[in-house]
Design a protein that fits this description.
Length: 264
């Protein structure tokens, strides 16, 4: 098992570092921009430019320096970057089948479940690493760039943001792993789950605009991660994390079951 994990982490290291650098750069740029706005005394002014339907989410983040510096945790591009990276990592079993490596791996007396467990560990640990890097970049950036009188985001808010982002990524990683237990090509598993992920994000977004779709939006993991609600304290964090954790657990369970049954 350790050898499998070490091999996977070795192949993951470079893209992981690249994504981490992008996230760090975004965090620092965001803090620099927020500091410039705060120095000019325009904090809160941007919120008036946000459309009404986005006020409960993005608008709240623009009302204070602390809120603006946490946008990186729930910005659409950043969230999708982390989610897509988790999807790619979790589809490794399909990649092993596509490359014919699974025959070599299972020629040894290894339980099939180990291949799934390896991918679960790599995907989850890599996602945790990205969230920790983002959090570290936030505090370093605040220490370096924040104006003297500016109020920093509360640690509990940052922890909640990171936990939501991590679990949303785990949800899609789990279902990417489940998909890879059916297909024989990594690109197929990644493509299917990535398209579903984008569709679910759009459903959640449109659900904020169109009430008839609001009920359907509850099926999207993104429905349980609205940054503005976390900032305002109106989010039901325990319930949201429990739902996201249940979705991820279901995906993992299906992956283990299907991989143990499939014809390799």
């Amino acid at each position: 098992m350790i050898a499998l994990i070490r091999r996977s982490l070795g192949r993951t290291a470079r893209p992981l570092i690249a994504v981490a650098l992008v996230l760090c750069g975004f965090q620092l740029a965001l803090i620099a921009a927020a500091s410039s706005i705060a120095a000019d005394g325009n904090v809160g002014g941007l919120a008036r430019l946000v459309p009404g339907f986005l006020q409960p989410s993005l608008g709240l983040a623009l009302l204070s320096f602390a809120g603006m510096t946490t946008i990186g945790f729930f910005d659409a591009i950043i969230v999708m970057l982390v989610v897509l990276f988790a999807i790619h990592l979790a589809a490794e079993p399909a990649g092993d089948i596509e490359a014919g490596l699974v025959d070599l791996l299972l020629a040894r007396p290894l339980p099939r479940a180990w291949l799934v467990t390896r991918s679960v560990f790599v995907m989850m640990s890599s996602t945790v690493a990205l969230v920790l890097v983002m959090t570290a970049a936030l505090w370093v950036g605040l220490s370096w760039l924040a104006p003297t009188q500016a109020s920093w985001p509360e640690p509990r808010v940052v922890v909640k943001m990171g936990a939501h982002l991590m679990l949303v990524a785990w949800c899609f990683g789990a279902w990417s792993l489940a998909a890879s237990a059916w297909v024989r090509r990594r690109g197929t598993a990644v493509g299917i789950v990535a398209i579903v992920g984008v569709a679910l994000y759009l459903i959640d977004f449109v659900g904020m605009l169109w009430r008839p779709l609001a009920r359907v939006a509850k099926l999207s993991p993104f429905y349980y991660f609205h940054g503005g609600e976390i900032i305002s304290g109106t989010a039901n964090t325990a319930q949201d994390l429990a739902v996201l954790g249940s979705i991820a657990a279901a995906g993992f369970a299906i992956a283990y079951w299907r991989f143990s049954q499939r014809d390799l």
